Amino acid sequence: MSLWTRLLRMLQGEARSQLERRVDPAASVDAAYRAQLEIVDEVRGRLVDLLTARKRLEMQIAGYERRGAPPEAIAAFQEEIDDLRRREDALAAAADELRRRADALRAERDITRARVAAAKAGIAAHGAIAGLTPEQTEIRTLLDEARERTIALQARAEALAELVARDAGDHDALARPPE
């Protein structure tokens, strides 16, 4: 498959997704939830990067201490480690807040899905009661056509009966002798 075909399919899929979000409120909330989860994952990844940097610094400071580095250099490393810990704490708190928001979005997504399903069920039920479903419209059309055919057949039968009666009257007049 060519690169252009893949790109075209990706763009078509995105266009379909955008249209679905405009039509279906649950899809919109679901997209927001997925975006929030992506942000949470990114923040957690950055937190892991900070933890890794801090651990490297702690290993370096341990090596410097073993080699007898001057206390000023060790103090500078320690300040850097403390700064990284503060940033880790702030980032962890932000990640927790983002996770709480994602959980709230998930709850809203579930509620929205339930509301949409209930609304669709209500529309279908009321449509069925009002006779607006395609099946009921077809049944009404078939009944109307049957009524029209029945009326046409009855009219034809009456016309034929009248013709027979008229024809019988003409035969009687011809069969009787003139007075």
Percent of residues in beta strands? under 5%
Q: How many helix segments?
A: 4
Q: Ends: how far apart?
A: 102 Å
| Structural class by sheet pairing and helices | mainly alpha
Pattern of helices and strands: HHHH
Helical proportion?
over 70%
The radius of gyration is 42 Å
Structure overview:
The protein has about 180 residues and is mainly alpha-helical. The protein has 2 domains: about 5-130; about 135-179. About 95% of the residues lie in helices and about 0% in strands. It is built from 4 helices and no strands. The chain has helices at about 5-25, 25-65, 70-130, 135-175. Helix 1 (about 5-25) packs across helix 2 and helix 2 (about 25-65) packs antiparallel against helix 3. It is rod-shaped and about 155 Å long. The termini are far apart. The mean pLDDT is about 80.
Features:
179 residues, mainly alpha, 93% helix
How is this fold's topology laid out?
Layout: H1 3-23, H2 25-67, H3 71-130, H4 134-175
Helix pairs in contact: 1-2, 2-3
